[in-house]
UniProtKB/TrEMBL annotation, chain A:
<dbReference type="Pfam" id="PF00005">
    <property type="entry name" value="ABC_tran"/>
</dbReference>
<keyword id="KW-0813">Transport</keyword>
<keyword id="KW-0067">ATP-binding</keyword>
<dbReference type="GO" id="GO:0005524">
    <property type="term" value="F:ATP binding"/>
</dbReference>
<dbReference type="InterPro" id="IPR015856">
    <property type="entry name" value="ABC_transpr_CbiO/EcfA_su"/>
</dbReference>
<dbReference type="GO" id="GO:0016887">
    <property type="term" value="F:ATP hydrolysis activity"/>
</dbReference>
<dbReference type="InterPro" id="IPR003439">
    <property type="entry name" value="ABC_transporter-like_ATP-bd"/>
</dbReference>
<keyword id="KW-0547">Nucleotide-binding</keyword>
<dbReference type="GO" id="GO:0043190">
    <property type="term" value="C:ATP-binding cassette (ABC) transporter complex"/>
</dbReference>
UniProtKB/TrEMBL annotation, chain B:
<keyword id="KW-0472">Membrane</keyword>
<dbReference type="InterPro" id="IPR051611">
    <property type="entry name" value="ECF_transporter_component"/>
</dbReference>
<feature type="transmembrane region" description="Helical">
    <location>
        <begin position="33"/>
        <end position="65"/>
    </location>
</feature>
<keyword id="KW-1003">Cell membrane</keyword>
<feature type="transmembrane region" description="Helical">
    <location>
        <begin position="193"/>
        <end position="209"/>
    </location>
</feature>
<feature type="transmembrane region" description="Helical">
    <location>
        <begin position="115"/>
        <end position="142"/>
    </location>
</feature>
<keyword id="KW-1133">Transmembrane helix</keyword>
<dbReference type="InterPro" id="IPR003339">
    <property type="entry name" value="ABC/ECF_trnsptr_transmembrane"/>
</dbReference>
<keyword id="KW-0812">Transmembrane</keyword>
């Protein structure tokens, strides 16, 4: 074969069936074999559509309309099987089978690879991603970083044919859901996979810094079609710094004017404290025990630690949403509710003002608010406006008061434009702000945030951090579960570091 | 800075209690399904206690011979032991009357016949239950899918789609729990149980569709499509062998013995009677 481009686009575009707008169009570039490309662009610029197209999974004429040409190794990608691998953002929804060996073999089976060749390929692919585990190891027992490496192995096993044709590896925000260790693992594995310059790499990622050293080219899609930039990383970052920042990319040197707060040198008294705490989602699944910790009033506390160590479980338990398996969480006197007058008998019997998990749900509203990792878990209404009013109505506030408070919140969270939209249809950043807003509505003294900056681009991240800083300024106590280092630098006023079992 | 003092840690490892390997594991999953049907036949076609008792005792002996620990058997049989007496009581009270009347009140006739039938019901449920819990309990899903596709020749797309989808079920349990916690956090945890259930069910549906779509994309990216399903290969062989043949012979013999003995002793009672 001649030195044909690995991926060639000529005035390419795609419009999904039933849409009037093109997802992306007027795309032209030529990527050579072994080149490593970082693909950037604002949300809605068509990055994922382009990756799906290179992968050949956009579908035929009934799925949408294609214009121009997009070729991989001189052929239409839908005719290639196994030459292009795709790794997506969410680790858990890419695992297909129960055991790691079977999962890696899945792609080979689909390509019709003879059985005796499958297993050597599986072992080679697992070696390449350094997953040194038995083939029957359960996929559910893998960490997020390991699951992403497994997905990479699945793609590699498909490419490793006898002709050893060079493959293309597409990564769609592969580290967005991982802790720092997982990010490092995936980065190192990808570096070694592409080291021989036979595999072409196309990676989409907001957090540019992770890949900046590895890639030799940056292509930026303009929203509305065409390319905004195409060149070496240093050229592109220098020439298009402002546009990239506006598009939400974490360009090297992009910083915000956010500052760390000044905090008192003596720690304030605890608003929540825990001793001899044993936590777990259910009695049969003890995560950890003997936990002793204190949440100082008016500060921003961060719960940190590797994936799976029980950070979320600890936060849920402290927030009164999960029953401690042993020991107790104690609320400071100022936070305790009075014994409610009207209460169902079963609730009244277990009620203890010092223990948040025994409070009726309504009493939590003005005391402890929780923002879940996935905002969608919290949505109960069909309109953004009603969503913000849920807590206020549960507290029995008047119609006028609800309306006034909701209008305030809509303005504060920049959600006026979408006030009548369904919460499920909002963008990622809007969903996150709405979920924080639903908690703010009832003015709780303590707010728990589970991974508040997960999957946010630079703009939504900055919005969110300044919002949290404003909430703190109003005297609220914040507890966040996070492993975002930039967030910790600004808001890690008190750190609760959880460590994995020895 | 607050420190987190953690003593006496318990790791999550060892959560999946290792199930001991038995000779049953050498059977193809397809065989295990069909053996269950075969073992159920005598219990279903005859209503008497003798054929059921022969099946029950025979099955337990065979399982023991295959290396199934008594304790595991007892543990798995526990739900069956709870259900059986309920069925027996209703049969004793409302079953077709006949023979000596022991007790009578309104619609309730406790007679010789209804008591015999009640005992038979308990034994039949036990016989079915003991075969079902061991043959289907701990069945390897992947191996089952391999068997259904390679031996029963069910379409690969259907079998593998179902297999991958089943893996998502565990995630839905987590989703449901989180949804309930989120309702409590939002002040909706005290009342309105029906409405709460409705919003949770709706949200779960949204999650299910979204996860399903992502999984389908991941499978497609690995070359799983209607064009390739026909000529796909299988990394794991699923075939029927000697252990399966032995299983068939033993189960058929036991079933024949059960029916034969009830015919010989005259307790046989066809289900249509």
């Amino acid at each position: 074969m001649t030195e044909a481009a690995a991926v060639l686009a000529q005035d390419w575009g795609w419009r999904y069936a039933g849409r009037t707008r093109w997802a992306t169009r007027r795309i032209s570039f030529s990527i050579g074999t072994g080149e490593r490309v970082l693909l950037l662009g604002g949300s809605g610029a068509g990055k994922s559509t382009l990756l799906s197209a290179v992968n050949g999974i956009l579908g035929g004429a009934d799925e949408g309309e294609e214009e121009g040409q997009l070729l991989v190794d001189g052929r239409h990608p839908s005719r290639l099987h196994g030459r292009v691998g795709l790794v997506m953002q969410d680790p858990s929804s890419q695992v297909i089978l129960e055991r790691i060996g079977d999962d890696v073999a899945f792609g080979c089976e689909n390509l019709g690879v003879p059985r005796e060749q499958i297993w050597p390929r599986v072992r080679a692919a697992l070696d390449a991603v350094r997953l040194d585990l038995p083939l029957d190891h359960p996929t559910s027992a893998l960490s997020g970083g390991q699951q992403q490496r497994l997905a990479i192995a699945g793609a590699l096993a498909m490419q490793d044919g006898e002709d050893r044709a060079p493959g293309v590896l597409c990564l769609d925000e592969p580290t967005a859901n991982l802790d720092p260790t997982g990010v490092r693992e995936v980065r190192e594995v990808i570096s070694s996979v592409v080291a021989d310059r036979r595999t072409t790499l196309i990676v989409v990622e907001h957090r540019v810094r992770i890949w900046a050293e590895l890639v030799d080219r940056v292509i930026v899609l303009a929203s509305g079609g065409g390319l905004l930039a195409d060149g070496t990383p240093s050229e592109v970052f220098a020439a298009h710094h402002d546009e990239l920042v506006r598009a939400g990319a974490w360009v090297p040197g992009a910083h915000s004017d956010l500052r760390r707060r000044r905090v008192p040198s003596t720690p304030p008294p605890a608003i929540l404290s825990a001793r001899d705490l044993a936590i777990g989602r259910e009695p049969a699944h003890l995560v950890t025990s003997g936990v002793r910790t204190q949440i100082p009033e008016g500060l921003s506390t961060a719960i940190t630690g590797p994936n799976g160590v029980g950070k979320t479980t600890l936060a849920l338990t402290l927030a009164g949403l999960l029953e401690p398996l042993a020991g107790q969480v104690e609320a400071a006197a100022s936070l305790r509710p009075a014994r409610p007058a009207r209460l169902a008998r079963n609730l009244r019997r277990r009620f203890d003002p010092a223990r948040p998990n025994t409070w009726p749900s309504r009493e939590l509203l003005t005391r402890i608010g929780s923002v879940f990792q996935n905002p969608e878990h919290q949505f109960v209404e069909a309109r953004v406006r009603d969503e913000l009013a849920v807590g206020l109505r549960a507290l029995g506030r008047s119609h006028d008061e609800c309306a006034r408070r909701v209008d305030e919140l809509l303005a504060q969270l920049h959600l006026e434009q979408v006030a009548d939209a369904n919460p499920f249809t909002l963008s990622g950043g809007e969903k996150r702000r709405l979920s924080v807003g639903t908690v703010l509505a009832t003015g709780p003294a303590v707010i728990f945030l589970d991974e508040p900056t997960f999957g946010q681009d630079h703009n939504t991240w900055t919005d969110l951090v300044s919002l949290i800083t404003r909430i703190l300024e109003q005297g609220c106590t914040i507890v966040s579960v996070t492993h975002d280092e930039a967030y910790l630098r600004l808001l890690g006023e008190n750190i609760v570091a959880m460590e994995p079992a020895a | 800075m607050t420190t987190l003092d953690i003593s006496d840690r318990t790791a999550l490892a060892g959560q999946h209690s290792a199930t001991r390997a038995t000779r049953l594991d050498r059977l193809n999953p397809v065989t295990r399904f069909l053996l269950l049907v075969l073992a159920a036949l005598p219990v279903i076609i005859s209503l008497d206690w003798l054929s059921a008792a022969v099946m029950f005792v025979g099955t337990v002996l065979i399982l023991r011979a295959c290396g199934v620990p008594v304790r595991r058997l007892a543990r798995r049989l526990r739900p069956v032991l709870l259900v059986a007496p309920l069925a027996a009581v209703s049969m004793a009270l409302y079953g077709k009357p006949g023979g000596e009347v022991y007790w009578h009140w309104g619609l309730i006739w406790v007679t010789q016949r209804s008591v015999t039938m009640a005992i038979a019901v308990v034994v039949r449920i036990l016989a079915l239950g003991v075969a079902a819990v061991e043959l289907l309990g701990g069945l390897d899903l992947t191996a089952t899918a391999d068997g259904l596709a390679q031996i029963c020749r069910l379409p690969a797309r259907f079998v593998l789609g179902a297999l991958a989808g089943l893996r998502l079920a565990g995630l839905f349990v987590d989703d449901w729990r989180t949804l309930a916690q989120a309702r409590r956090a939002r002040g909706l945890g005290d009342s309105g149980r029906l409405r709460r259930f409705a919003t949770m069910a709706f949200a779960l549906l949204v999650f299910a569709i979204r996860r399903g779509t992502k999984l389908a994309t991941a499978m497609e990216a690995r070359g799983f499509s209607s064009q390739t399903a026909g000529r796909r290969t299988w990394a794991r062989v699923s075939r029927l062998g000697l252990p399966d043949a032995i299983g068939w012979v033993i189960t058929a013999a036991l079933a024949a013995l059960a029916i034969g003995s009830s015919l010989y002793f005259g307790t046989f009672s066809l289900v249509t009677r």
